[in-house]
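User: Some background: our group keeps a shared notebook of sequences we're curious about, and every so often someone picks one and asks for a predicted structure to add to the entry. Today it's my turn. The entry only has the sequence so far, pasted here. Could you supply the structure so I can complete it?
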Amino acid sequence: MQPSRLPELSRPDPDRSIRVMVVDDSAVVRGLIARALEADAAVSVVARAENGQAALAQLEHVEVDVIVLDLEMPVMDGMTALPLILSRRPGVRIIVASTLTLRNARLCLDTLQAGASDYVSKPEGGGLVHAEEFHRQLLAKVRALGGAPEPAGGAPPARPSPRPVPPPSAATVRPEVIAIGGSTGAPPALVQVFEALRGVSLPILLTQHMPPMFTALLAEQLARAGDRPCREAVDGEAVVAGRAYVAPGGWHMTVERTEGGPMIRLNQEPPEHFCRPAVDPLMRSVARTYGASALAVILTGMGSDGASGCAAVAEAGGGFVVQDEATSVVWGMPGAAARTGRAEAVLPLSRIGEWLKRAAA
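Assistant: Of course. Here's the predicted structure to add to the notebook entry:
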């Protein structure tokens, strides 16, 4: 299996509104999504289309930054349209919007591997009128992918200057675990990292911002990519070398030390950063349980989840690296972790697996 390659990333101009196209076969749904997005002054819906073919026709004369794309449509569905759109407009950000079924969950993961930037689950039964959480998530993703600044006031902290990539620190404690966190754009990045980690025996603990159903399917993809057992974690199971554990959708995953060794714990405590699972609970528990024998990674994603947890890992003597801005779909999470000043390196995606293998060895 060849490593997945992320599409070329364009950086929209933050000084103008984010231009959005909504593609859905329902005129009602198109209208509701457009109305919800345009409630934000930073967003302008410049085009609407009833199927993929109509979207391609409109792209001939409309400039867009973000496309909200339905999967199930007549004439040309979203899966068929996706590669054609990216071929015509390289760098455009695509958010797949679909109802949450097992089939659509599989298709959504396929679209992420094919170049879509993110996805959002439509409420079942077409209940978009009062679907505040759906609209909140969609708007947040449009803003992040379109390059809008974070809603919280104030200018973002300065980003670290580029510097030579250092080798892993000379560890005094043999590494025992790799903990990874990611969100927007991370599934294809994870495939690339897991492929690079073939042959590495350390267990992998992974929290990816995903709803139920998606996390089990992601684990299947990563098992194939990394040629290692990988599945949703089960509360109370032991952490075993050579295996990977994915936090199930809707559950925080942590790890604790027991007489028999490290053990997985799942809980449904309140969301952190609007997410459950969230990355910070995992990283905090990794810091407590493994201390200086922990390696951590933050991949592309919106928001700041994982930054404080990685700082805790560093404080306990472990090390962490983050994906760089150039190869990130959204440099929110890795950027926040980098700004703690505790990261050992800010790396392009292609170098992260290499760094981890050297550190593990």
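Suggested note for the entry: The mean pLDDT is 89. The CA atoms of residues 18 and 51 lie 21 Å apart.
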